[in-house]
Specification:
This protein is mostly helical.
Length: 88
């Protein structure tokens, strides 16, 4: 496995917490950060693949047809958009 270096600048508080957790896990800070990055990559890629599978062959082409069946009425009080969104 080839390795590359990357000068990482962390806020002091974040580095302190990461170092604490690395020590708790019995690994170096570098190893702990590398593992955290690998986990994040796995989550993002898994999420992207899940959404692709969930969407299947769906496209936005049929959305207008679906929206034609939505009742034309005022939203329930708990479903209204915030007033700040009214101009959007």
């Amino acid at each position: 496995m080839s390795k590359a270096t990357y000068p990482l600048k962390l806020p002091a508080s974040l580095k302190k917490e990461a170092a604490r957790l690395a020590k708790q896990d019995g690994v170096s800070l570098n190893q702990w950060i590398a593992t955290a990055v690998a986990q994040k990559i796995g989550v993002v890629e898994t999420t992207a693949e899940f959404l692709k599978r969930r969407a299947g062959n769906a496209t936005g082409a049929g959305l207008s047809e679906v929206l034609l069946h939505v009742p034309d009425r005022e939203p329930d009080p708990s479903d209204e958009l915030p007033p700040s969104w009214a101009s959007r």
